[in-house]
Design brief:
Chain B: Its cofactor is [3Fe-4S] cluster. Chain B: This is Ferredoxin. Chain B: GO terms for molecular function: 3 iron, 4 sulfur cluster binding; electron transfer activity; iron ion binding. Chain B: Keywords: 3Fe-4S, Electron transport, Iron, Iron-sulfur, Metal-binding, Transport. The complex is a heterodimer. By secondary structure, chain A is of the alpha/beta class. Chain A has eight helices and 25 strands. In chain A, the strands form seven sheets. Chain A has a five-stranded parallel β-sheet with strand order 3-2-1-7-19, covered by helices on one side. A five-stranded parallel β-sheet of chain A has the order 9-16-10-11-12, with helices on one face. In chain A, α1 crosses α6. Chain B is α+β, with helices and mostly antiparallel strands. A two-stranded antiparallel sheet of chain B has the order 1-4. A two-stranded antiparallel sheet of chain B has the order 2-3. Classes of the chains: A alpha/beta, B alpha+beta. Chains A and B meet through β22 and α7 of A and α1 and α2 of B. The complex binds flavin-adenine dinucleotide. Flavin-adenine dinucleotide binds next to α1, β2 and β21 of chain A.
Chain lengths: ~400, ~60
């Protein structure tokens, strides 16, 4: 069958960035048949990174967040505000929360993540998470109430971004709590963690590190956070940014490996099924550029990369061309805006965490700093901290990052 | 192929430089420079650059 004769239907579950990119890449790969997207948010796909930054700061209206879909997907059908509740992969059907049963020839899983919640005792009102537009708008209202005192639980990227935005909004007390001894140290290691701690403290963020949260005080609203070391921090706004959980319950009972996302093979097929692929944050895929071990990567660049590979896999199957694409070996990239500085990451820093070297700049002071992460002596990740100059410095290391030969797993 | 970057939106992230170094670069101050009429053979990587722009500031016109 030629590309112009595609018949049948591809169903995309999850209508955010990865779902949209998958639809676009299906067209780019020659699929001319029907495409239906189902998403439980009421909005067309929008960009999440500004939620913890510009949206929280009141600087980005919704219109500026919406993605501009490529013209090739103008005829796709969007079922928004509808949630997939069960799937029967052998029969190729998905059932939605309103009872509708949709059959498909190809399935794209793009249901992403939701925030993990703390389970310790205490009242719920006053506690926020930041994943959706509605979350960010609710938190903005709370942060802009006069006299708000904020405790952010979790010193990862989103927690540190929220703390920085809260300081910029004029919140008088902003404290970040984390059981680890330094911020963002999981993905970036202690060298950058120390530099980041210093820069945050210099701009007014307080930290309670090396301690967890035991519970929340207050009767019907949060009034404080009890730490595991016995201290109590007064707070009327709490932000929980303690990681995320994959939205895969609707796929239960199909024999898939759903431990931490949907495990896929190197072509992004789920459970070895050629007609079901996974994309974006929810996909746990092997990256042949590194060690080929399946991992989820919650970076903004991954929806686009996985969509391209998954669409080729799916269209080759649906068209019966059986073409085997090259092994999937994306170069992950990530950025994070905090206060007046930006972090930019290229490659896989955590994969080279045992051999970290300063490539440009120094760790003292506030200037631009570029750090390299190595494995077996080869550069596997570069992180730049600072202004635009740091990004150009990082770009100089691109050839070395890409030179690492992709392994065939 | 014509490439248009909305320089009011651009915040010099440099993600496009990683995706398509033949078309996009950063000068010594970290400001974006680009080739507005690249060869059609580069379409794949320019599309990639447009996709990875955090500000969605890159447009491709035919
Ligand atoms: C606050 C915040 C800030 C971020 N900042 C950065 C940053 O600065 N830099 C960076 O590189 N990355 C950042 N990221 C990460 C980046 O936004 C994600 O990697 C990206 O959004 C993943 O897209 P996705 O489509 O895979 O998943 P998601 O965006 O989670 O989309 C999944 C969609 O599926 C829907 N869904 C779930 N279950 C169902 C169901 N059963 N039926 C129907 N629909 C369903 C969800 O509601 C959602 O709309 C940030 C993320 C957040 C939340």
């Amino acid at each position: 069958m030629t590309a112009s004769e595609s018949t049948g239907r591809v169903l995309v579950v999850g209508a955010s960035m990865a779902g949209l990119r998958a639809a676009e890449q299906l067209r780019a790969a020659g699929w001319t048949g029907a495409i239906t997207l189902v998403g439980d948010e009421p909005h067309m796909p929008y960009n999440r990174p500004p939620l913890s930054k510009e949206v929280l700061a009141g600087k980005a209206p919704f219109a500026s967040l919406a993605f501009r879909p490529r013209p090739a997907v103008a005829d796709a059908a969007w079922l928004l505000g509808r949630r997939a509740v069960t799937a029967r992969l052998p029969e190729r059907t998905v059932v939605l929360d309103d009872g509708t049963s949709l059959s498909y020839d190809g399935l794209v899983v793009a249901t992403g993540m939701r925030p993990r919640r703390l389970t310790c005792p205490g009242p719920l009102p006053g506690r926020h998470t930041v994943r959706t537009l509605d979350d960010a708008q609710g938190l903005r209202e709370a942060l802009t109430r006069p006299g708000a005192r904020v405790v952010v639980v979790g010193a990862g990227f989103i927690g540190c971004e929220v703390a920085a935005t809260a300081v910029a909004l004029g919140v008088r007390e902003v404290t970040v709590v984390d059981p680890l001894p330094l911020p963002m140290t999981g993905p970036l290691g202690p060298l950058l963690g120390r530099a980041l701690l210093r820069r945050h403290e210099a701009r007014g963020v307080r930290f309670a590190l090396g301690t967890g949260v035991a519970g929340f005080t207050g009767d019907d609203r949060v009034t404080g956070v009890e730490l595991s070391d016995g201290r109590v921090l007064a707070a009327d706004v709490v932000v929980e940014s303690v990681g995320s959980v994959a939205n895969t319950e609707w796929l239960d009972g199909n024999g898939l490996d759903l431990t931490d996302g949907v495990r896929t093979d190197a072509l992004l097929r789920a459970g070895g099924r050629p007609e079901a692929v996974a994309v974006g944050d929810v996909a746990r895929f092997p990256n042949a550029r590194y060690d080929g071990v399946p991992r989820r990567v919650e970076h903004w660049s991954i929806p686009g990369d996985t969509a391209k590979q998954a669409a080729r896999t799916l269209v080759a199957h649906l068209h019966g061309t059986g073409e085997e694409p090259a092994p999937f070996a994306p170069l992950p990239t990530f950025w994070s805006d905090q206060h007046d500085f930006r972090l930019q990451s290229f490659g896989a820093p955590s994969y080279g965490a045992d051999d970290v070297r300063v490539l440009d700049g120094t760790t003292d002071g506030d200037g631009d700093l570029v750090v390299g992460y190595h494995r077996d002596g080869l550069l596997v990740g570069v992180v730049a901290l600072g202004g635009p100059g740091a990004a150009s410095a990082a770009a100089r290391h691109r050839p070395a990052l890409l030179a690492r030969p992709a392994v065939t797993a | 192929m014509k490439v248009v970057v909305d320089m009011n939106k651009c915040q010099d992230h440099g993600q496009c430089v990683f995706a398509s170094p033949d078309v996009f670069s950063l000068d010594a101050d970290g400001r974006l420079l680009y080739v507005p009429d690249p060869d059609d053979a580069l379409r794949d990587e320019v599309e990639e650059a447009a996709d990875v722009c955090p500000l969605q500031a890159i447009r491709i016109e035919d």
